[in-house]
Amino acid sequence: MPRKAGGALKRTSPGFLVLVCFLLLLRPAGCGGLPEKTAPAPPPGQNSPLQKQAASDDTAPPDLIPATVAEVIDGDTVRVRLPGRRTQKVRFIGVDTPETRHPKTGEEPYGRAAAAFTKKSLLGRRVWLERDVQERDRYGRLLAYVWLEPPTGASASEVREKMFNARLLLEGCAQVLTVPPNVRYADLFVKFQREAREAKKGLWSGKTPGA
């Protein structure tokens, strides 16, 4: 006798239900279930964090050597303590201050004042050393530009405000001494010396310190 249309459905076997549940568990969550977590894409025109890091590296300052000034020898020469507690004598690039104890001329005019300015500004202070083409002079001294703060670039304003070599010139405590191949800031140094001379500062004042 044929089944009626409204009759009871045939009972499903337990094995079939287990198989269906297993297949549902394997179903990927990204397709109709919970959305998969992905990093949001940056808005149009905006760099990703990695791109930003690469861009900042392109404008990073040159390699600098952190140091602490342990002794001031004269206006343009100091002894510094480097990482690892090594000490080095450092001669400032591009500037020349009057001598305090020259073997032939003895103490030169304004030599003591220049040394005092360097001592007041640098002794015990943390600085950052920038090298040029030539690493040392004929006396074995490390040649460096001395930064009071790490620069963010090499603009004239950065050099004027943060580099001690430049401050010696701007205050009239030193004259320009350009010794190739170390000429990275030579043009700026000439400009700073001209400013000090026109303002009659220090060496250009026509006065003897303490007189």
Question: Descriptors for this entry?
Answer:
single chain, 211 residues, alpha+beta, 5-stranded mixed barrel, two-stranded antiparallel ribbon, 6 helices, 17% strand
Would you give an account of this structure?
Helix content is 29%, strand content 17%. It is an alpha+beta fold and 211 residues long. Strands 1-2-3-6-5 form a five-stranded mixed beta barrel. Strands 4-7 form a two-stranded antiparallel sheet. Strand 1 and strand 2 form a beta hairpin. The chain is globular, with a radius of gyration of 35 Å.
Give the SSE layout:
Layout lengths: L13 H13 L22 H10 L6 E10 L2 E5 L5 E6 L2 E2 L14 H12 L3 E5 L11 E6 L8 H7 L1 H7 L4 E2 L9 H13 L13
Parallel strand pairs: 3-6
Antiparallel strand pairs: 1-2, 1-5, 2-3, 4-7, 5-6
Helix pairs in contact: 4-5, 5-6
Task: Give a brief description.
With 211 residues, the protein is of the alpha+beta class.
Order of helices and strands: HHEEEEHEEHHEH
Structural class: alpha+beta
Helix content: 25-40%
Number of strands: 7
Residue stretches low in confidence (pLDDT < 50, at least 5 long) are 1-10, 16-60
Strand adjacency order, main sheet:
1-2-3-6-5
